[in-house]
Design goal:
The chain is of the alpha/beta class. It has 25 helices and 12 strands.
Length: about 525
């Protein structure tokens, strides 16, 4: 049980947002007797890492809520699968098949992967599979099912009855030409199956029907049972209303839409949910990650190179700052994870609440002594030429004889990740420096100095010898250049491990042979 004073003091953002929601929604939550949080997903493309981020961050808020209140919580993962397919994604097969089915609801578009009844269902299943992979607790809801089953009917009637007020909210935000054709209700065409964006001619509130102007022809439609869907800003407000949503986070690019949806739900008689706008994810070029383009690193790629917990850590950190997502970011995040894990061993309760890993692990932080950093392990993969976990473990045990795999499950997985990450990502980027004559003399002097070392020496003592060798060979004014030389020649990179620790682990003789081979 966490002390109340620590819950009051912590400024970790999941607690900040949870407390804010409990304040803003106090009366509604007490009346319902539960807390409902929603995450939205548009299945017009394959699920990407941003979708994972939204569910992961919402789950962290749920974890915080469990320590602040005894009320039950629910995460609704809502798929807007009745939306019309607007464009063909770049990262799918059979593009011509999708081209022929543009503008149809996603659950009426054939599956280009030939696995499910529709493209919408395919993407919904992909979403559920990867959320299940992370053991998220959520309640999946399909827009198509809720519209067609009649679940939304009473809320749609409320929208129709407030048509004029909603138009007064939306129209000022549109250009003059769009104002002429805008309708919050989008009928499904009986002939083409398309989701139509056409103007309204006449509204029959009593019978819950609308007559649309379909290119000069009258099209009469009931608003119930999936005959129409709502334009998405109105749909968002209606969904909050129908599902009694207390919290939803969304990308910074949707702030304006959230503002309009908040005005609409207030108009129709309920308060808007507590909101949280996060910054967007960018690829290595600084461009927004897109479902349809498939740019940036995918969830599957991250999980080939690092643990699910490291990905959750990346999502936890600085949610209100734009973040680049590409392969090279993985190793940095893994090392941050390991550093934070080490810190937990000496932290008090309040410090633990501020440690991101408390939120990543749902307050159940693993206990494991770390052997080395991920970056160091990557250097070890390179220098030992190990291409399997067994080989690398043998190498580790050569110098750490008392280590057992069963006592180090995190490190055991880390070894497999390191081999894969080095071979896929780092190997092709390595550029080994060919030393000039002065640099060669300095490195040969280091090899000679290592003759005075042995494997029982402390890493700090070996590090001191490396420092003094650099000072004696022209690097007294800039030791950074000395270590940069070692890293570029030995590891093919400007940065590398703390050499004293590396040598004590890799072995003095092995390091001497390594440097000699690189000089040659």
């Amino acid at each position: 049980m966490i002390k109340k004073e620590n819950l009051d003091k912590t400024s970790a953002w999941p607690f900040v947002e949870a407390k804010k929601m409990l304040r803003e929604r106090k009366l509604f939550i007490e009346k319902k007797g539960k807390i409902t949080l929603q995450t939205g997903y548009g299945p017009s493309g394959l699920p990407h890492i941003g979708t994972f981020g939204e569910v992961a961050r919402t789950s962290m808020i749920v974890n915080a809520l469990k320590h602040l209140t005894n009320l039950p919580t629910e995460i609704i993962t809502f798929s807007d699968d009745m939306d019309g397919l607007r464009k063909v994604p770049d990262n799918v097969p059979k593009k011509e098949l999708l081209e022929k089915n543009l503008h149809k609801p996603l659950t009426q578009v054939p599956d280009p992967f030939d696995k499910y009844s529709s493209f919408g269902e395919h993407n919904n299943q992909m979403l559920k599979k990867f959320l299940d992979k992370f053991n998220f607790t959520y309640n999946f809801k399909s827009s198509t099912e809720l519209y067609k089953s009649g679940f939304f009917n009473s809320s749609l009637q409320v929208i129709l009855e407030n048509y004029e007020g909603i138009m007064n909210i939306i129209l000022p935000t549109l250009g003059k030409e769009r104002q002429k054709t805008y309708s919050p209700f989008l009928p499904i065409c009986p002939e083409t199956g398309h989701v139509l964006e056409i103007p309204i001619k006449e509204i029959n509130i009593k019978d819950s029907k609308i007559i649309f102007d379909n290119n000069g022809k009258e099209l009469e439609k009931s608003i119930f049972n999936g005959n129409c869907k709502l334009q998405w800003k109105v749909d968002w407000a209606m969904r909050w209303y129908a599902l009694d949503v207390d919290f939803e986070m969304y990308g910074k690019d949707l702030i304006e839409s959230a503002t309009l949806s908040s005005k609409i739900i207030k108009l129709i008689g309920k308060a808007n949910p507590s909101g949280f706008a996060y910054e967007l994810f960018l690829d290595e070029k600084g461009e927004k990650i897109s479902k349809s383009r498939g740019n940036g690193i995918t969830i599957d790629q991250w999980l080939e190179y690092a643990s699910p917990e490291s990905l959750s850590l990346y999502m936890y950190q600085n949610p209100k700052r734009a973040k680049k997502l590409y392969k090279e970011i993985v190793s940095k995040t893994v090392d941050e994870y390991l550093e934070l894990l080490e810190k937990t061993k000496n932290q008090d309760e309040l410090q633990l609440l501020m440690n991101p890993l408390w939120h990543v692990h749902n307050s159940d932080i693993p206990k494991e002594q770390m052997i080395m950093s991920f970056s160091m392990l990557l250097n070890l993969v390179e220098t030992s030429n190990a291409d399997s976990k067994d080989l690398l473990w043998k190498f580790v045990k050569k110098y750490k004889k008392n280590i057992l795999e069963k006592d180090h499950p995190i490190f055991d997985k880390l070894i497999g990740y390191a081999i894969k990450y080095f071979n896929d990502v780092l190997k092709k980027r390595k550029k080994y420096k060919k030393p000039n004559s002065d640099e060669r003399i300095a490195l040969e002097a280091l090899v000679n100095k290592l003759d005075d070392c042995n494997d029982k020496m402390l890493p700090e003592d070996i590090q001191t010898i490396i420092y003094s060798t650099g000072k004696e060979n022209g690097y007294s004014k800039n030791l950074r250049d000395w270590f940069k030389l070692i890293y570029e020649v030995v590891f093919g990179d400007e940065n590398g491990p703390r050499m004293g620790f590396f040598i004590s682990f890799f072995g003095v003789k092995e390091t001497k042979d390594l440097i000699k081979n690189k000089i040659k």
